[in-house]
Write a structure and sequence with these properties.
The structure is a single chain. By secondary structure, the chain is mainly alpha-helical. The protein has one domain (2-55). The protein is built from three helices and no strands. The relative contact order is 0.10.
């Protein structure tokens, strides 16, 4: 996917770069968990996630 999207570890897709994927994912989850969202914002986040995962 990196090549098809023209992303790299330095540009837009660090989590696809290979090394450190697990730590990058954990950091993202911690960041999301630390944000206080309204119920509407939380639902928008969930809907966006579902759309992204269904696309790929």
């Amino acid at each position: 996917m990196q090549a098809r999207l023209h992303f790299s570890g330095e540009f837009a897709a660090r989590y696809l770069a290979g090394a450190g994927r697990g730590s990058a994912w954990r950091h993202l989850v911690q960041l999301i968990d630390s944000i206080e969202l309204t119920p509407t914002q939380e639902q928008a986040l969930i809907d966006g996630d579902r759309q992204a995962f269904s696309r790929f």
